[in-house]
Design goal:
five-stranded parallel β-sheet; alpha/beta; UDP N-Acetylglucosamine Acyltransferase, domain 1; seven-stranded mixed β-sheet; single chain; 29% strand
């Protein structure tokens, strides 16, 4: 029989109060609190907590904190990952981030989806009195070599190609192709990023 976790990861309606899911959410949130209470001079302790919170990551994963995760183990991070302040990850479906990703402050990756009709969205009560709701989620993929600027929100179901820059304050609701500069609410592709964007062509920087 399919479990509630399997339903969740497959993007099906699932019961958020399932015991397996509750246990992992509780563990992830405790780990987040512990990590967020550490300081820069506790590098070993920070690494230990991140290893437990985000087991599916490659080398050179740096997270400034604070970080907030639903599960943590549904987040897959490539090498040379860097996330700034207030990184929020609602990983009810897999979130996959490629190598060399820069994540600015106050970035939110939000996979959950709730019904538009309140009759289907509102909480319900089981026969034992437990309050629950039914929701579903959609995965997020961010390719290699992307920079997600500050205050960006990426919604479930979005795929961002490699080499993209998402401008500050954007709300990304649709896929973004490779090597794109995109920003806005809703986020739209402005143009391709080319060799003409090289910082070495900006004489005022030298």
């Amino acid at each position: 029989m399919i479990t509630e976790k399997e339903k969740m990861l497959a993007g099906k309606l699932y019961d958020t109060t399932d015991s397996q899911l509750l246990q992992r959410r509780e563990k992830a949130r405790i780990l987040c609190v512990k990590f967020n209470m550490t300081t820069e001079d506790q590098a070993a302790r920070r690494a230990e907590l991140i290893d437990e919170l985000i087991p599916n990551k490659k080398e050179n994963c740096y997270i400034q904190g604070p970080i907030f995760c639903d599960y943590g183990d549904n987040l897959f991070v490539g090498k040379n990952f860097c996330a700034n302040f207030n990184f929020t990850v609602l990983d009810c479906c897999p979130i996959t981030i490629g190598d060399n990703a820069f994540i600015g402050p106050n970035v939110s990756l939000l996979t959950p989806v709730h019904a538009l009709r309140y009759q289907e969205r509102n909480v319900r009560v089981k026969s034992d009195g437990t309050i629950y709701d039914l929701e579903y989620a959609k995965p997020i993929t961010i390719g290699d070599n992307c920079w997600i600027s500050g205050n960006v929100t990426i919604l479930g179901g979005v795929n961002i190609g490699q080499g993209c820059v998402i401008g500050a304050g954007s709300v990304v609701t649709k896929d973004i192709p490779d090597d794109s500069l995109a920003f806005g609410n809703p986020c739209k592709v402005i143009r391709k990023i080319t060799e003409e964007d090289s910082v070495y062509l900006k004489k005022d920087l030298f």
